[in-house]
Amino acid sequence: MNIELLNKNITDIKTEILVEFLTSQNLEGHLDADILNKAGFKAEQDSICFLHEKGILFCGIESKKSDAVRSATVSMIKALKASNYTDAKLSVLKNSTLQAMVEGIILGSYEFNNYKSSVKEISLKNISLATNELDFDELKKTFDEAVIISKATCFTRDIVNTAPQELNPETLAILASKLASDNNLECEIFGEDRLKEENMHSMLAVGRASIHESQLIHLTYKPANPKKIISLVGKGLTYDSGGLSLKSATSMVTMKMDKAGACAVLGMIKAASELKLDVEIHAFVGAVENMIGGNAYKPDDILVSRSGTTIEVRNTDAEGRLVLADVLTYAQDNVKADGIFDFATLTGACMVALGQYTTGLMGHSHKLKHDFSKAGSASGELIGSLPFNRHLKKLLKSEIADISNVSSKPYGGAITAGLFLDKFIKEENKNKWMHFDIAGSAYTESSWDCNVYGGTGAGVRLMSEYLRNL
Length: 470
Ligand code: BES
Ligand code: ZN
Ligand code: ZN
Fold this sequence. Notes:
Layout: E1 2-6, E2 17-22, H1 24-27, H2 33-38, E3 48-51, E4 56-60, H3 66-82, E5 87-91, H4 98-108, E6 126-130, H5 136-161, H6 169-182, E7 186-190, H7 192-197, H8 201-207, E8 215-221, E9 228-240, H9 249-252, H10 260-274, E10 279-290, E11 302-304, E12 310-312, H11 320-334, E13 339-344, H12 348-354, E14 359-363, H13 366-379, E15 383-385, H14 390-394, E16 403-404, H15 413-422, E17 433-437, E18 443-444, E19 454-455, H16 460-468
Parallel strand pairs: 1-6, 2-4, 2-5, 5-6, 9-10, 9-13, 12-16, 13-17, 14-15
Antiparallel strand pairs: 3-4, 7-8, 8-10, 11-12, 14-17, 18-19
Bound molecules: ligand BES and zinc ion (2 copies).
């Protein structure tokens, strides 16, 4: 399906269907009010009504704000996809909602069909967005950028959705090196021999029972005159069985998505390089599979991390933080960055705290929290801040090592996981670091907003918005 922005009067574009967005106020006194009333259409948010004889699809919106427009555009694209129309046109409602319209169309029509032996053909081939904007070039730039960010989000979704027998640490490394060569990025990949030389024993322990070698992936986007340097770190558990602290049969299903942090940072560096941002970006991924076996790491093991901090393992299912501890240390040792942001499907507790739609944001810097909550509102991603405190920090105390990998109390699990990571952030970087727990927001089993079944690509739109405003 193609999507284009045209500097034309909408009446001069010939398509089978015209899409019109209506608020309930617009509905009163509308030319088609009577027939729409007969059809029971009240212009409620996300409702749609076809007038086939007239060639019009009406879509209800509660306001002309971006969130409402994005969501209504998703209803529109789903209705068009289910029809047999081949092309449609609609006007850009407001310049400020163009990005939301593009996201609604591209992200709302996303499908992952790699494992289906037959796929229904979609008739819809083209969508034209019309604008009479005098400064068309400016709007075209917004449009092109929205397409890049939406496609990078789909790229992230594709990797998250790929089955774990196909997507393991080794194949993720191959995929990352292909991304690097396609997008002109520098690429460094370390297997287990090099990880040992680098003293990354905390990360290595997690992957020990897997038949696949753990991998550290480092991609770099280097523009000519970067204004800032940003390090992105992603949890890349291509499968999380829980290890010897085995997950239950039902909790294990969907754990292919435990690589979503890694997939998100790959999507972010792809977007940044295609947007040609003048920010140097380093993407670090710890790609590991958490399995069981005779050589698996165990509760009671003491791990010596790259930083030298010793860790008492009390639960092998709290493995993401063990991988991130070493990757965060490696990132800080190798790049002097202005911002260090990690993305991880780290805790079920984050969903308990914020619900499954919201990314949990943790860190010390009020300024970064403020900047990211602004980026959240502008990008349409939901962000909720979870506050650290010293009482929760004490719950990670170990009697035998420097820190325990789980809290001694059952509450505040997203925050104690964040505080565990904090232990591996150097003093000089405390105010440069933010942790994003995407356990809920990265994956969905039912559609919401512009997300459909599977990976959502959480983080990509948010980070693109943040980086564009740096
Ligand atoms: N990958 C999981 C977290 C998770 C759970 C992500 C559900 C998405 C959906 C993580 O490795 C994990 O298992 N965390 C444990 C931590 C606990 C053992 C302290 C959890 O959340 O139960
Ligand atoms: Zn786990
Ligand atoms: Zn995990």
